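batch_manifest entry 22 of 60
target: Glycerate kinase
source organism: Sporolactobacillus putidus
requested by: lab member K.T.
priority: normal
notes from requester: please return tokens only, no post-processing; we will run our own comparison against the previous entry in this batch. if the run fails, retry once and flag.
--- input ---
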Amino acid sequence: MQRQTMKIVIAPDSFKECLTALEAADAIEAGLRRVWPDADCVKVPMADGGEGTVRSLVDATGGKIIKKQVTGPLGKPVDGFFGLLGGGDTAVIEMAAAAGIDYVPRDQRNPLKTTTFGVGELIRAAIDLGVRHVILGLGGSATNDGGCGMAQALGARLLDSEGNTIGRGGAALAGLASIDLSELDSRIAEVRFDIATDVTNPLIGSKGASAIFGPQKGASPEDVRVLDEALGHFARIVSRDLGIAIDQVPGAGAAGGLGAGALCFLGGTIHPGVDAVIRAAGLEEKMRGASLVITGEGKIDGQTIFGKTPVGVARYAKKFGLPVVALAGSLADGSRSVYSHGVDALFSIVPGAVSLDEALAHAETNLTRTAENLARVWCLAQHLPNE
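--- output ---
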């Protein structure tokens, strides 16, 4: 009996704590090939701008990881990294690789003092390699300094009322009196910066960087007040000296206000994270001629519709009228909401009642088995031979 040959686009995010996006795509492909050994499986590892974005885009484009020691959020050296994508003119940087909360022990978390200086050092290292396009992923930060540390690393002069450089950290912004960009790395103007984030919070206020994200970085209620006032003061100085309004721009509050800093110091444009990744990976073009799109991530719930990978992938797939199936480690409350955002079917890969440790340990096997079952169900629905 003649086998059905079809093109399948496999575009999952990582399954946190167990599989990278590429490993997840490989596991899905292995399951599909048990049913369709001759299928054209196009694997496009995905991310939404947060942790795993560098790895996903490097894998998707045949790029490489560049390691670079930089200044960590506490001012001590850390081993940072960024991705140089295939082609060599685009870099993807996760701010957390230089200023992430994982670099700070829980008892030392203090956004009054932590800095994004290392993020600027990664940007400079990328530009030194001839990069002319940077995708900067925001998320997982330990900081609340509005990206001022990043700017200082790139040559910006942030001065107090006596003309001295202000210190590092969110609290230091309260002493900012003027901004001088005359010594900012001139190559910044030649680079296009796409800022990838899955949050839309403004810089200041009750929904701003300090109020919403400060507590998880170690800020007390009083610290939140100090930080919010400092960011507000920073925004006023930016408006006066640079002529840019940053206080209420959606996404400006991402990563402790690094979104705002990227706007005013880098001339960046804020995008939903998954859209930036989809464009860089060329996913839309790879969907042409496909019969099926498979996506997924570790958990699908009511928050998935707010900029997460499965819905982002589904939105592009619907441009071609393609069916979309999402696989997940768990389907939590609100997961059915994705049905109204382009996902046609959901499957949990967990086979039964197991502990989290067991689920993580067997994620690859479970994902492969579920992909095989998906292919068999597809064959039944299409009246196709399945082996």
